[in-house]
């Protein structure tokens, strides 16, 4: 049988919805995952070699930024995210929660799960709206986490 490079290639996953569950709160359903971001800033290191005098220029690991997860959904009228965000603005330590983010297909089967450690809604916004428009009101939430792990 001839070799086919696509035969053993992993299949890309698709997701129809995103389910977020934190501690004792009810699951929240989102229609869009804008991104999971984790970043380490590069730092330049320039030195002169002690014997040859040659300049050595390297890039090394620098400051880490906390991971963020940005999701969108239709406003559901519960006000849960705004209430949680208010706890953050007040500096309440209980606002940090650990939870899961599940990427689900159209049938509701989980395709991928991420664990969000000590997450809190650092930004909540309601989308651009026009009076008389028939569009769904969308809210976007950015969760800042201490750590994000794929399970």
Protein architecture, described:
With 151 residues, this protein is mainly beta. It has a single domain (17-39, 66-150), classed as Roll (Pnp Oxidase, Chain A), CATH 2.30.110.20. The chain has one helix and eight strands, in the order ββββαββββ. The protein has one helix at residues 80-89; strands spanning 17-22, 28-30, 32-48, 55-74, 97-104, 110-126, 138-144, 147-150. Strands 1, 2, 3, 4, 5, 6, 7 and 8 form an eight-stranded antiparallel β-sheet that branches. The radius of gyration is 21 Å and the shape is extended.
Distance between the termini: 35 Å
CATH superfamily, called what? Hcp1-like
SSE order: EEEEHEEEE
- Shape descriptor reads extended
How many β-strands, per DSSP?
A: 8
Given as residue ranges, the uncertain stretches (5+ residues, pLDDT < 50) are none
Radius of gyration: 21 Å
The assigned structural class equals mainly beta
Alpha plus pi helix count: 1
Taking the sheet with the most strands, its summary is:
8 strands, antiparallel
Proper CATH architecture:
Roll
The overall average pLDDT, rounded, is 89
Indicate the CATH class.
Mainly Beta
CATH level-3 fold name: Pnp Oxidase, Chain A
Number of domains: 1
Binned, the helix content reads: under 10%
Q: What fraction of residues sit in β-strands?
A: over 45%
Summarize this entry quickly:
This protein has 151 residues and is mainly β.
Task: Tell me the layout of helices and strands.
Elements: E1 17-22, E2 28-30, E3 32-48, E4 55-74, H1 80-89, E5 97-104, E6 110-126, E7 138-144, E8 147-150
Antiparallel strand pairs: 1-2, 1-5, 3-4, 4-7, 5-6, 6-7, 6-8
